[in-house]
Amino acid sequence: MHSAPSADRVLLSAGRASELKLPPATCNNAIRPATISSSSRVPPPSAHSRAKSRAPQILSWLFPKSRKKAKPPEMMTMPPTAIDRGNVSQLLTEWGALSLESLKKELAEAHAHRDAALREAAEVRSSLGELAAKLVSVEAYCAELKKALRQATSSPSVSRRSTRSAEASRELPMPVSHDVMVEGFLQIASEARLSVKQLCKALIQQVSDDAGDGLSDRLNLLLRPYQLALAGGGAGRQCSKTVLHHLEAVMNQAMYQDFENPAFQRGGAPRCLDPAEDRRRSFAAFVALRNLSWNEVLRKGTKYYSEDFSRFCDRKMSGVVATLGWCRPWPEQLLQCFFVAAKCVWLLHLLAFSFGPPLTILRVEDGRAFDQMYMEDILQDRQQVQSPCQVKVMVMPGFYVQDRVLKCRVLTTRSAS
């Protein structure tokens, strides 16, 4: 009943019907029939039925309904949760298809990095094992040297020569005692032996790194008299101990040449004519160069620290180059190994001439009968030393250290019966 007046107003304003008058409502809700200009008279419908029948048509004419797109049948029947689930599943499927290959690639790279890390760890573990074994052997060797030194110094039966040498050395105004000097000489001798061995390893490694520089042929030429040769293809990693020891013998022969001379050169003269002053100068030079490092040499050169040491390095470098017959520029790592070896040998010479009289080097020639008192076989077991054998080659020289002997190391062969 409240919608009829609004509908009538809409009809009057639209002008689509002639004058239409609604009778006033009575108390008993009786509606009188309206008078229409047409001659025919029909029973008027109620206001409620007219509003109900015409309002939707008029409203739809004034406000046409927007056409909605028809939804697919399956979308109309699927609930929202099912639609969301389908979209998520499709997205996950597409994402998995795109990233599967990249994940496989990353996994393969991770496996490759892991394998490389495991190989490096195995190499480091192997190197640490070798270093530990070498350290144990060096410690045992030093313990034997200390024990022999204590026995020799405490023994009452000492030769006259060793007694005079000890007394003369104690009379020197040295800043350290005689025993400290002996221990220092044994330590430097061990460092010198290890440094020459490291130099030989660096030479063999240079053959492995740069096989086309002719060094391999030079080394094989040096090993030919011993019927040995470097292994082909990665010789630096597959070199046997026998080949390494024979190469050490060649290098030690060049490094320790003219060790007996006070100037460490053929026909050289001592620094000072006074023996005591010459010993003091030798020991002072030893102390000054003991801690000289490779980095300091790179910055200022050897001549800045000692002209004698600089000339010694030049002579030994020329001798090694002449022995190898290899005149190409040396890489820095190889030069550093040579510097360490030359420094240790030079320090050993300075300390040997700090004693009075100077300590004497011990050499043996090839073919001499093996003597356990003065020689040590590197490769042979101690149980096999009793069997008759002779020196094949001297690997490292020895020294007469006052009243005892630092044995030279040799390679032996069975004596011809």
UniProtKB/TrEMBL annotation:
Pfam families: GIL1_IRKI_C. InterPro entries: GIL1_IRKI_C, IRKI-like. Residues 361-411 form the GIL1/IRKI C-terminal domain. It comes from the Eukaryota. Residues 31-54, 152-172 are annotated as: Disordered. This is GIL1/IRKI C-terminal domain-containing protein. It comes from Panicum virgatum (Blackwell switchgrass).
